[in-house]
Amino acid sequence: MIEVGLNHFLVVSTLLFSMGIYAIVSRKNAIQVLMGVELILNAANINFIAFTRFGNFGLQGHLIALFIIVLAAAEAAIALAIVLNIYKTLSTVNVDEVDSLKD
Amino acid sequence: MNLYDLIFYLFAAITVLSAFLVVTHRNIVYSAFFLLFTFFGVAGIYVLLGADFVAIVQLIVYVGGILILLLFGVMLTNKITNVEIKTGTINIYPAVIGVSLLSGALLAALITSNWKTFPTEAPLPTTAALGTMLLQEYTLVFELLGIILLIALIGAASIARREA
User: Fold this and answer.
1) Which alpha helices (H) appear in chain A, and where do they start and end?
2) Contact list, A7 vs chain B (CB under 8 Å)
3) What ipTM does this complex have?
4) What is d(CA A51, CA A56) in angstroms, rounded to the nearest whole number?
């Protein structure tokens, strides 16, 4: 077994990113698509923090990770409000059935 | 194989397996709960990388905030009388093939590339340094993020409460 290094963390984040993409392109429910977006943001955060640890950049990667977490919170709040509105209007949140701009 | 590696493999396994269940489970409530384990695993990975403050923020914001928000979304957009909260998939074969190709290409690229790494020292506490940076070099970003959060939350409330 080789010692855990930068590559190991990058592999974990790549797997998270791929599964997030999979959720976005294949799940019907809009909330599960949102979960995919959260997985992708987490993968980006792992990359930032891994490069901070194994590179020589100071702590800026940690700050960017914090900014990403804040933006993820804002994004989740707004996206859920939109999803609730879609549900109120169309009685479904399946993204393949929500295809009318105006009724 | 030392303790650090063992803990890393444990957290990596928790993260990846529960993320896989998040994206494949048919019941969306189960998906949301597996997302909890994914976020915990990612927080553990942050701790292993010496990012103590980011790990705590991850626990507070993701597990305490975003996950609860997602669960509220699940509850409010399904008929609760319907016990089976199932959800389907579309385009499953193109999605699997495309995502496998994408992740294979990414993995090949990052494994074959020769990253320049510096020797790692023992991690130091980061909270004080992060606070200093936030209030000195990154004050503008900090204030802008506060404004963005305020606007986002007001906007979310007004969108969600709009009378149709």
Assistant:
1) 6-26, 30-54, 60-90
2) 110-111, 115
3) 0.91
4) 8
pTM of the model: 0.91
**Tens digits of residue pLDDT in A60-73:** 999 999 999 999 99
Average pLDDT, chain A: 90
| Residue with the larger pLDDT of the pair B160 and B38 | B38
Helix (H) or strand (E) holding B19: helix B3-24
Report chain B's terminal Cα–Cα distance, integer Å. 60
Q: How does pLDDT run across B36-76, given as a tens digit for each residue?
A: 999 999 999 999 999 999 999 999 999 888 999 898 888 88
Query: Which residues in chain B (76-135) have CB-CB distances under 8 A to chain A?
Result: 76-77, 87-92, 94-96, 98-100, 102-103, 106-107, 110-111, 115-118, 120, 123, 126, 129-130, 133-134
- C-beta atoms surrounding B107 within 10 Å: 16
* B104-113 pLDDT per residue, tens: 999 999 999 8
- B17 by Cβ neighbours in 10 Å (0-12 / 13-18 / 19+) ranks as middle
Which member of B15, B16, B74 has the closest CB to residue A31? B74
Element housing B160 (H / E): helix B139-161
- Nearest Cα residue to A49 out of A58, A40, A37: A58
Among the partner-chain residues A27, A49, A56, the one whose CB lies closest to the CB of B118 is A56
